[in-house]
# Entry
Amino acid sequence: MSITIKDVAKKAGVSHTTVSMVIHDDKRITPETKKKVQAIIAELKYHPNYLARGLVQGKTNTIAIMATFFSSYFEMNFLKGIELQSGESEYQINQYSTRGKAGVKEQVLEQILYGKRADALISLSIKPDKAMLEEFRKNGLPIILIEEEMKGAHTLKTDNYKGGFLATEYLLKKGRKNIGIIVGEINGDEVGTSPAERLKGYRRALEEFNVEFDSDYVYEVKDFDYKDGKEGLAKFLSTAKKIDAVFCAAGDYTAMGLLEEARKRGLKIPRDLSVVGYDDLEMSAVVNPPLTTIKQSITELGKEAFKIAVDAANGKLKEPKNIVLQPELIIRESA
# Structure
């Protein structure tokens, strides 16, 4: 037989309302009563029935997270931030992957909205169309867009334009003139705004240093993985006239693949080729050579996204919240 809130109240010698107030950390409960009730909850192994509560209150106590995939380092570090922030929160997390397949995004959005599966949605680099966003608004279900922007939605991102500019400016100041960029897909479904913004920052830096932009030095990738870096360098060496630096705007993991390919080809880093990544993953400081990179606080993005989602779900945000975190150039031995 499952333990109910009434069982806890009876053993603790309090009302079930008091138990509920303890569970919700109501400040009106005295520390002594709170401690006693929490001890009984632990002893009886009582777990609140959030599904039943949701049916009564019209809430699910769930935050939905949607992404194309959850296997990349960005998504994993983002989820780490959510885990760190959620702590003792009563909100649960449900993940939805679109797998990059046509039509799946719309299906997932409809399932979350019309199936009443969450009290808020965090969407990573995926944005709904305007009609679907309006449906979410009408139904009182807030959306938090990560690395995307839409009027009427909460947005949270890093200044990717500035990040692209900082990386390229640094390489140019080091005397590099033939700088390749490996960047995420610029156009297409579920690509987000960050690749285009980083490329824009790259081009702006070239312009300021009077270096002509050449499309041969641009390599777009989809997966943001190790092999993309290897293939990107191979492409540059075969098509670019000369290359003396690469900005891996697609991320540090991609940059690590490029470093491996450079070693195989006998290139010395940074003498023959300077390399700058993007993200500042923990392993970036220990690869050979340690990677110069643009730091974006992915874990911090996750923390802030969870805070906004909970506040929005509880009706505390009357207007869309927009947060832009600032990137930072981290100088190491690869450039």
Q: What stands out?
A: The chain has a mean pLDDT of 89. The chain is about 45% helix and 15% strand. Residues 298-313 form the longest helix (16 residues). The chain has three domains: 5-48, 60-158+299-325, 160-296.
